[in-house]
Every structure is written in C-alpha cells, then in structure tokens.
C-alpha cells in the first residue's frame, strides 16, 4: 500500500482508537489527539503543490478486484489536490474549534470524533479515486457518516429528522449515480474516470448517453443541495456547529461540485449538460438567497446562503463547460467561468467557515441563535463582530474582500453568454444575467441582515438565556484564521493563481491542455467601467433599499402554504409512503404460511412460464428415452395414487402417512436408477419429516368442521395446477433443450487435477461448492443452537416452577 493510500485511509485507521482515548484520558480533551490527523494530512498534501503546479499528476494503484475492473487507484491532479487541501485544512480548523466548543465532560466525544474522522476519510476517497466504483463506495460513506454527524444529538427530534432527510435524499442520488456509472462502464468497458475522458466521443455516440448523464447529475445535485433537492441542507443545521462549518463550507456539499467538474469533459458534447447545470445552479442561487432572507435563526440564514452559493458555483461550472467548445484557451470567453468557479470554491470555504463558527460562538455565549432576540452584541463581542462583518461583506460580494473578486467574475461570465453562437446562449441566455442579478440582490440583503441584526441596533440582553460575553481565545483562533484568509485573498488573490487555481482549471480541461496550451489566471480588482461593475452597484443600491423597507414586503413569504412547499411535499410523501407500506404489508402479511407459499409458487411459476414462452423453449421430444420396466410403472402408479389420495383425506394422520408413501416411492426410484447416496438421503429426510409432522400435528388443534369456501378450494387448485404444469414442462424440456454443456463434464475433467480427489461428489461438496457447504453447516449449527436454547429454557422454567411449588408447600406447612 502506497503512502497516498495510507493518507486517504489514515482517518479511518485512527478512528478505532478514539473511544479508548476518550475513556482512558478524560483529563485531556479528545480533540487534541484527533487534531494530529488533519494537520499531518494537510502537510502531506501541501507537498504535492509543486508537482501539480508543473502540470504533473501522481497515481498509485492497489489491485482489488481486477477481474471486475475495480482497483483502488488514487489520482492526484490539480482539482483533486485542491479539494484534498480544503478537506484537511478546514478539517484541522474545525477540530481545533470543536475542542473549545464541545464540553469534554458533557459530550460523547468518542462518538463525535469517530464520525468526523470517518467523514474526512470518505471525502478524501471521493476526490482522490480514479475508479468510479471505489469513488461511489466513499460517496455513500459520506452519506452514512454525515447522517451520524447530523444526528449526533439524537435526543432532539429535529436532529433525527434532519439526519433522516439528508440520508434519504443523498442516498437516492447516490444510487442514481451508481446507475450512471454502470451505464458508462458498459459503453467503454472501464470504470476509470481518465478512460471515460479519453473516450468521451464513444460515450457521446451511445444511445444511453443522456440517461447516464441525468443519473450522474442526480447524484451531484442531491449531494450539493441543488433545487429541488436542497431541502435537506437547512435541516442539517441541527448538527453541532463544528459539523455545520465542516459540511457546509468545504466537504460534503462540495462533493457534487467536484463530480460535475470532473465529469464535464465526459459530457462536454451535449447542450443538455451545459443548460441543465447552468439553469439548475442559477435558479438554486436565486431560490436559496430568496429563502435566506426570511430566516430568523443564524444557522438557518447560513444554511440557505450555502444553498445559494452552491448554486452560484454550479452555474459557473455549467457555463464553463461551454469553454470546451472552443479550439483553444486564447480568447476563450467561458474560461473565466471555470476560473471563477474554482476561485469562489476557495473563497466560500473561507468566509462560510468563519461565519458558521461565528454563529456557534454567538449561540455558545448567549444561549440563542434567534436574531429577533439578538442585537447590540458589537460592544461586548468585538472580535466576533469583526469576524462576522468580514465574512458577511465577502459573502455579499463587496470589496476589498475575496468574495467581491469571484462575484465580479461570476457576473462577467453571465454577461458573456451573448458572445456565444451555440446552444442558444445568445438568445435565451439573457435569463442568466437577470437571475444572477436578482439572486445577488437577495444575497446582499441576507448578508447585511446577518451581522446588522445580530451585532448592531438596540441591545436585548434581558431576553437572552445567558449574559453575553466574548468567546475564549481558543474558540476564536479558527474563525480568525479564516477571516484573515478572506482579507488576504482579497488583497493578494494571485498568491493562489498558479499554485492551486490554474492546476485545478487545467484538470477540468484535459483535452485543451493536451494540445500544449496553458490557462492564464490573473485576478485583479479593477477591470474598468464594465457591465459587471454596474451590476454590482445596482445590487448594492437595490439591496440597501429593500433591506430598509423589509417590513413592507416580507409578507410575500406567507403566501405559500406549507403543504405546497418542497418540505411539505417531502413530509407528505413520507406520511403517505408509510401508510401505504403498512396497508400493503397488512394485505400480504397474513400470518399464514399457506399464503406465503402461494406468493412464492405463483411468482416462480409465472416467471418460468414467461421465460419458456419468451425464449421459445417449449419444444420437447420423447425420442431416445430408456425403456421403462414394469415395476417402474407400478411404482409410478403408487406414487401418483398416493399424491392424489392426499387431496381426499379428512384427517391429518392419513395425509401424513400418504405423504410418506410418496417420499419413500421417490427414494425407491433413486435405488432403481443407481443413486444409492440420494436414496439414503431421501429416506432419512422422509423419516424425519414424517416423525416431525406427526409430533407437530399431535399438539395442534383439530381442523375446524366449518365448510371451507369454494373460492379457497379453487384458488388452491389453480396454484397447484400452475406449479405442476411448470415443473412438468421443465422436466420434459430438460430432456431435449440443452443449450449449455453440462457442468458435469467440467467436474469430470478437473476434479482430480484441481482438487486431488477421486470421489467426485465429495470434491464438489467440499471444494467446488465449499462456501455453499459451509453456509449449510452454519445454518444447521444455528438451528442446533436454537433448539438447544429452547430445551434449556424449558428445563430452567420447569426447574423454577418445581422450586416455586416446593416453596409454596413449605410455606403452607
């Protein structure tokens, strides 16, 4: 195993030791031990920056299931390295923040950090795996670990609700993505992402191209909370604030963005890819910002703002896909969209991480996150206020912070669509800058509202559960570092241009890089009097006016009843599906084994008969059959008469005896046909079965004398005839329809050479069907343990009963 693989799995390898550290060293906060893992990883991954900056990649492969084309291939290029640094770098700051946020004496830190490390390893596996099946495994591990993190405070109903919602929606998307992965593999015969990019032309010509694309996008949209799947993310705010800061800024919600960026070269040929991603992303940006304004919970505002910001980045990746339709990178008007997407990805991690930590500090030091109760905190929490205003203004897209730079690039990308003469960007593309402008206005409103309603205005300290005060220095370190990055990247954005942004963008355009071209990344404040600058001025003016007059138009949020919202649809669907499931279950779970056997027999017979008809296999012949001896006629008649006589028996005892006659008759057939081992097995089974039937029926109540309904008799007769007909046809077909060579020939040729055994039956059971035999032994062993337990339980009850009886007798005496 390479060092790169160990780096991916290091958090998982460290996780089992966390509970022991938590229990054994309670005087030290467990987070200090956990902090070592992300610090080591971010240092390790930082060493790849010179390699990816030079345009090189690093790969390492572990052979896993090569016969199925599944190997654990770790792949580090500019895009995957950027995400790995965000995952581990923000992860280190989150762990440091959690040390001061979570009380080591009140919280179950052993569980918390195990879940967090599991999540970190899963995210690294997603962004560093080249094989899509391996990536899918890690992808679903992120859903499971995020479920555990969101539901960490499981005693709260809203935590359980949020965890369940995130799990249901993201797992649905993951399963859809798996279907797309399988379709892509069927087109080119490989699960490798690099192979898919190299064979994008072959994929584009496949009739399943569009289906695979939609399935892949479902996985990306659900994970990155795009409309209409965004509803899980606001409910995920019920998690502890360190979890929210980690999930919403740098990890889980960015996985879908990574998938879209990585798969863009595969689906670049289709206008559906561009318009679906750009359209869904743009509307998500507007819808998230529009709904953020009506929130009264700090984390609620930040959750919907995350939805909006993710939509912004997603729309940029959609527009950036148009760059692949240019011959080169010079004067490529859509290259700015991809550069903006990568740059805003970094910026969002910095300002959103700091804002979530700020919200956690306010909650921790005041006892509430409700902005209706907050206000005037600037005087008592000056450092937290500074963090809030830096992060909020950056999120609003105002200078001199890094969010302004990437927001300007976003507006520039939307106004450049008219320069394209393909995919109808020059016509209906007018919608993109319009929606971008409206969404930016609401982004400005909720950003100003975030810090103004919390830290400015009249103080309401008497309404707070706790007397507010500034947070301890340890809790401030992580958000201060992120706030400094917001300011630093605003003044010196090009410090990341060639080290992280350029390699990541070139990883999204491998076909253009292959031609020897390079991406020119140069980010600066002043572009002149451009349309995007005028749009920013318009956003500030209109946003300020609407913020000032909020009381006059906030009523529009009350127009839509809950049942017509997406959350209402989700809740209604859950209620309806539960009721439907219970009703369906009550109809088929009757408690009668007879009913269950009818379901099984009807299904199997129906499928077999359909297959026989569909594949035209109902032809059979009675030629070349062995002669039937007279005694075989007699034995066959006895078996048939015994079976028919069972139908007319009024008592159980004769029915059991006749059933035994049929079984012993079949055993005699095995004797006549030269299969003594089968005959012996059949005799043992029949003897045991008859004895068990007699024992069981002896203790059962008598059959009701009430007349059985005719429908019941007719239904049983139909099922019996159906099964009998199916088995008869299969028996006749087995005589003549041999489309495959008998496996017995394989056993004859290989039993001695492969297993060194002369008894074919023994070798087949022990070697060739070793797992089958092992599982049969396990089943028998479990049954034996069950029987032994029941006997012991009955004996102990009898002993206790006798002891109690003796005690009563002694008491009476």
Automatic annotation (TrEMBL):
Record-annotated MrpA C-terminal/MbhE domain positions: 715-797
TM segment ranges: 30-50, 81-100, 112-128, 134-154, 166-184, 196-222, 243-260, 272-290, 302-326, 332-362, 374-398, 428-452, 473-492, 533-551, 596-615, 630-649, 656-673, 679-700, 712-735, 773-791
Protein origin, superkingdom: Bacteria
Localization terms from the record: Cell membrane; Membrane
Keywords: Antiport, Cell membrane, Hydrogen ion transport, Ion transport, Membrane, Sodium, Sodium transport, Transmembrane, Transmembrane helix, Transport
Residues annotated as domain NADH-Ubiquinone oxidoreductase (complex I) chain 5 N-terminal: 65-107
Stored InterPro entries: CPA3_Na-H_Antiporter_A, MrpA/MnhA1/PhaAB, MrpA_C/MbhD, MrpA_C/MbhE, ND/Mrp_TM, Proton_antipo_N
Keyword Coiled coil: no
Topological type in the membrane: Multi-pass membrane protein
Residue stretches making up the MrpA C-terminal/MbhD domain: 638-702
Domain NADH:quinone oxidoreductase/Mrp antiporter transmembrane residue range list: 129-420
Family statement: Belongs to the CPA3 antiporters (TC 2.A.63) subunit A family.
Name of this chain's protein: Na+/H+ antiporter subunit A
Species this protein is from: Exiguobacterium marinum
Lineage: Bacteria, Bacillati, Bacillota, Bacilli, Bacillales
């Amino acid at each position: 195993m390479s060092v790169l693989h160990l780096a991916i799995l290091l958090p998982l390898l460290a996780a089992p030791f966390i509970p022991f550290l938590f229990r054994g060293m309670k005087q030290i906060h467990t987070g200090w031990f956990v902090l070592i893992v992300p610090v080591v990883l971010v240092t390790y991954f930082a060493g790849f920056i010179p390699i990816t900056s030079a345009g090189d990649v690093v790969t390492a492969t572990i052979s896993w299931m090569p016969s199925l084309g599944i190997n654990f291939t770790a792949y580090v290029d500019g895009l995957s390295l950027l995400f790995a640094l965000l995952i581990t770098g923000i992860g280190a700051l989150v762990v440091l923040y959690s040390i001061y946020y979570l009380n080591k004496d009140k919280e179950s830190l052993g569980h918390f950090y195990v879940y967090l490390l599991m999540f970190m390893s899963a995210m690294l596996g997603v962004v560093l795996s080249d094989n899509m099946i391996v990536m899918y495994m890690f992808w679903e591990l992120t859903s499971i670990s995020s479920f555990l993190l969101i539901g960490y405070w499981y005693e709260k109903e809203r935590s359980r609700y949020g965890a369940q919602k995130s799990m249901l929606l993201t797992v649905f998307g993951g399963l859809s993505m798996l279907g797309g992965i399988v379709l892509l593999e069927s087109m080119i015969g490989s699960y490798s992402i690099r192979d898919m990019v190299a064979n994008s032309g072959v994929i584009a010509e496949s009739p399943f191209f569009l289906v695979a694309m939609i399935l892949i996008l479902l996985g990306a949209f659900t994970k990155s909370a795009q409309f209409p799947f965004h509803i899980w993310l606001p409910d995920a705010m019920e998690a502890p604030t360190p979890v929210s800061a980690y999930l919403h800024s740098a990890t889980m919600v960015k996985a879908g963005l990574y998938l879209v960026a990585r798969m863009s070269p595969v689906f670049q040929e289709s206008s559906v890819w561009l318009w679906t991603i750009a359209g869904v992303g743009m509307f998500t940006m507007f819808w998230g910002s529009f709904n953020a304004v009506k929130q009264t919970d700090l984390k609620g505002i930040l959750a919907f703002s995350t939805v909006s910001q993710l939509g912004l980045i997603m729309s940029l990746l959609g527009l950036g896909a148009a760059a692949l339709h240019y011959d080169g990178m010079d004067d490529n008007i859509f290259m700015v969209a991809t550069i903006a997407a990568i740059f805003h990805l970094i910026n969002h991690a910095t300002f959103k991480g700091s804002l979530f930590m700020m919200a956690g500090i306010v909650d921790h030091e005041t006892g509430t996150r409700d902005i209706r109760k907050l206000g005037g905190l600037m005087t008592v929490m000056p450092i937290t206020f500074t963090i809030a205003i830096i992060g909020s203004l950056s999120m609003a897209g105002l200078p001199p912070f890094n969010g302004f730079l990437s927001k300007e690039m976003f507006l520039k990308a939307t106004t450049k669509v008219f320069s394209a003469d393909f995919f109808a960007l020059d016509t209906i593309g007018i919608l993109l800058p319009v929606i971008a402008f409206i969404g930016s206005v609401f982004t400005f409103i909720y950003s100003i509202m975030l810090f103004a309603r919390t830290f400015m205005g009249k103080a309401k300290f008497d309404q707070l559960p706790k007397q507010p005060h500034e947070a301890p220095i340890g809790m401030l370190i992580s958000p201060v570092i992120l706030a400094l990055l917001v300011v630093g990247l605003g003044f010196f954005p090009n410090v990341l241009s060639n080290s992280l942004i350029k390699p990541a963008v070139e990883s999204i355009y491998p076909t253009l890089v292959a031609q020897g071209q390079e991406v020119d990344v140069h980010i600066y404040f002043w572009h002149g009097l451009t349309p995007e600058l005028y749009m920013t001025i318009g956003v500030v003016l209109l946003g300020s006016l609407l913020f000032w007059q909020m009381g006059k138009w906030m009523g529009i949020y009350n127009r839509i009843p809950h049942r017509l919202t997406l959350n209402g649809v989700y809740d209604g669907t859950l209620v309806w599906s539960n009721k439907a499931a219970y009703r369906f279950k009550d109809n088929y779970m009757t408690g009668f084994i007879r009913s269950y056997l009818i379901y099984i027999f009807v299904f199997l017979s129906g499928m077999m008969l359909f297959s026989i008809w569909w594949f035209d296999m109902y032809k059979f012949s009675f030629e070349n059959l062995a002669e039937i001896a007279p005694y075989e006629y007699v034995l066959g008649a006895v078996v048939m008469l015994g079976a028919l006589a069972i139908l007319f028996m009024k008592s159980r005892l004769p029915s059991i005896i006749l059933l035994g006659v049929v079984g012993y008759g079949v055993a005699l057939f095995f004797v006549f046909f030269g299969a003594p081992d089968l005959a012996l097995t059949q005799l043992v089974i029949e003897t045991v079965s008859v004895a068990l039937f007699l024992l069981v029926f002896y203790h059962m109540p008598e059959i009701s004398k009430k007349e059985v309904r005719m429908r019941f008799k007719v239904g049983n007769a139909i099922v019996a005839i159906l099964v009998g007909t199916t088995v008869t046809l299969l028996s006749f077909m087995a005589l003549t329809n041999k489309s495959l060579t008998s496996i017995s020939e394989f056993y004859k040729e290989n039993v001695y050479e492969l297993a060194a055994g002369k008894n074919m039956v023994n070798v087949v059971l022990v070697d060739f069907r070793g797992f089958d035999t092992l599982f049969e032994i396990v089943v028998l062993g479990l049954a034996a343990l069950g029987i032994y337990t029941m006997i012991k339980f009955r004996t102990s009850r009898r002993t206790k009963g006798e002891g109690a009886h003796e005690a009563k007798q002694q008491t009476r005496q």
